[in-house]
Design brief:
Rna Polymerase Sigma Factor, Chain: A; 161 residues; Arc Repressor Mutant, subunit A; mainly alpha; single chain; globular
């Protein structure tokens, strides 16, 4: 099954962006990942055996995560300075939302991406394991550790989150 350029961009670009942003914490890098992933899809779409829209989404997200890993391993990433993200200033966030975002951002990439895929993309742990090419037990333990870290960081809010 082959999807048109417009269809793939319209349906999946935002999902790819959010996954990359969750992993990298940089809007500019996430935008680059979206471009890279879409270009890769269109260069290989004729040879892929995509069975459904969900299969395509999983392939795109797995490709995005792999691209993020490449970026994090790169010398350029390691040398780059922390810059304030312009996109963060575009929205009026409540104090609670800012604290939750800060808590999520403080997680390491391996925890952030599992939290993102589980809670935002609503994948099951088995599906996340397939996307990230990890054992299901690893996904479950990362999700559990991430929840504990978030619970500790957001303890001031109690059960109100």
């Amino acid at each position: 099954m082959i999807f048109s350029v417009d269809e793939v961009v319209e349906r999946y670009a935002d999902h790819i962006y959010r996954a990359a942003y969750s992993y990298l914490g940089s809007a500019h890098e996430a935008e680059d990942v979206v471009s890279d992933v879409l270009m890769k899809y269109f260069s290989v779409c004729m040879t892929l055996d995509i069975e459904s829209a969900e299969h395509l989404k999983a392939w795109l997200l797995r490709t995005a995560v792999n691209r993020c890993k490449d970026i994090v391993r790169s010398a350029r990433w390691k040398k780059s300075a922390e810059l304030t993200d312009i996109h963060k200033a575009e929205f009026a966030w409540s104090e609670k939302e800012i604290d939750v975002k800060a808590a999520l951002d403080s997680l390491t990439e391996k925890y952030r991406i599992v939290v993102y895929l589980y809670y935002y993309e609503e994948y099951k742990t088995e599906e996340i394991a397939e996307i990230l090419r990890l054992p299901k037990g690893t996904v479950v333990s990362r999700l559990d550790r991430a929840r504990r870290q978030l619970r500790n960081k957001l303890a001031d809010y109690g059960e109100g989150l």
